[in-house]
Amino acid sequence: MTIEQRIRASLNNPANKSYQGLEADAIVEVMEANGCTRYVDVGCFHGGLARAVVARTPVRSVHLVEPVRELLMCAEHEILEEVPGMPVHMTNAAMVGNDRNSIEITVTTKSLSASGISEKCPFVGSRRIVEAVRVHDYLAMHFPHDELDDLFLKIDAEYLDLDIVSDLLAHNWLPKAFEFELIETKLYDEFLNTVLRPCSSYVFPDNLPIKSHRYFSIITSPTMYRVVGFEPFEVYVGGSHGMNMVPTDALSRSEWHDPRMNRFKKSS
Q1: d(CA 26, CA 22)
Q2: Structure pTM?
Q3: Per-residue pLDDT, 263
Q4: Where do the structural domains in the chain lie, given as residue ranges?
Q5: What percent of the chain has pLDDT over 90?
Q6: Which of 3.90.220.20, 3.40.50.150, 2.60.34.10, 2.60.40.10 is the CATH number of 3-264?
Q7: What is the distance between the alpha carbons of residues 77 and 154, in angstroms, rounded to a whole number?
């Protein structure tokens, strides 16, 4: 089995189907409500989430950023298999929120096996020095200020998300909507008060709904937000009027393959 076949096999993992479908539905809801037609995926991994997004809503172009080249190539394949001819722009780099020129990464067994990828992939455990690119510099290079109004930015930069969001907000290079991951939920209150709340361009939850989740993804825009909590999988919706758990039939576009997700299925 080739490296790409091993990676692509992970997309058949039932937990991944649930994870990607759930998160993609929340992303697409925010994208469509805000007129986002371009999708930038920082930390695209094997492209499963990006593929789920382009399968659900019309997208003009996709930008994929991933420090592991093998995963980046797989992600491109995923997008083009779903939407042949889609403009796909690839950057093999690690995104940061500072002026670092390079960063050392270790492709861990834990991160890949959790996504269903065989530990026998030859690049697992490898340590690499990869180019580091400041996210706001990347956006400035590819998207002038007047081209940010239809841009959705997804950030999953392995513990660097908060630094990147802080840098973006400080430089006022703001996409129409964006997503970032919060692994330590206890950090949210301080981050909300010191970084997020002073920025009036987006709405954010005043608190996270259930502290027992392992981590959250927060999707935000000028008028609405979605909070995706994993382990257990839940989506919370909110805007200026607080937060509620998503109704069981609200994610009808998903095709779940995991019995844990049956409560999100559309009733027949």
Answers
A1: 7
A2: 0.81
A3: 29
A4: 3-264
A5: 26
A6: 3.40.50.150
A7: 19
